[in-house]
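Protocol step 4 of 6: structure prediction from sequence.
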Amino acid sequence: MTILDICRPSTSILDQPMDLCCRIFPCLADPGRRSTTCLKLVLLLVHLIYAGVLFLFDEDLIEKTKKEPWYTALYLLLFFVTLVQYFATSVSNPGYVIEAMKEVNKRNVVQTKTPETSNQPASSKNGSFIISIEGNQTGKNVAGSNGTYWSKLVAELYPPGSAVRTWTCSYCSVEQPPRAKHCHDCDKCILQFDHHCVWLGNCIGQGNHCQFWWYLCEETAVCIWTGFFYISHLKAHITSVWWQDAIMILLLITLAVCLIFLLLLLLFHSYLIVTNQTTYELVRRRRIPYLRAIPERVHPFSKGICRNLHNFCCSLGLERIPTPQEIEEKSRPYTCSDLATCRCC
């Protein structure tokens, strides 16, 4: 028996608790998912600390709760809904390209078996193909005779003469429709990719961008309401217990910084929504082939504020790249008659 053999049992004994945790919680086996889980726990802990310190130190709030329980109940309801929305968004489906591909091919099979049904993909007046993007991604390639149907659909979304290699993902070998992108963190292609959120541990895309925006609204409202409680307490009891005041002032400063960040993020995504853009398209515009030649002040996928909001809320459609004539029309400066006829809407 060597020294190495003697040391092995102790090492395995130390590793047994971690192995047990990895079997019970598979997410802990992956370093990337483990770090995401830790961030989620940190965010949950921060929320609980702010609420706990508030109810622990503010006796006036407790007295007000006894007299007007509905006021505190509304705050706690918003607090709970925000946390639920956070975890729901973190596990939501951002819209995977391969799932859209499977859905389109599945519909093609059904339409082929039904003589009365047309084999052409359904398209709306604005050229957007409406598909379903539900389910879980189970592989990187979709084999079969129906792969050409997806290829035909994607080709119709690009200008004539575009090379197939320009829209084929080099990682997934999947033909991407416009506005889709491969996420290296998730290792999946995402429809209408916006960004990968580290705090959520999930991509933000066509399927969950609306959820993400609502989470930002709720989180901002919780921060404002919590800050109001902290300021009210400090105004009434600023000289009571110095260490309590020091803790609440420190937490309030941190809350103010977070609130500024949340407000800027909320305004930024609201701007993206009304102009039908994504963060990736705005930041990396010069790296996207079909956006390079378009002036920066022109939003090629915008269909007016009202329709943009509708499409954002309903998560509908694979959008085709506008024709040069449509780009020229969008580039035309607004006139008084355009404003009167609500051209921007």
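Step 5 (inspection) to follow. Residues 242-275 form the longest helix (34 residues).
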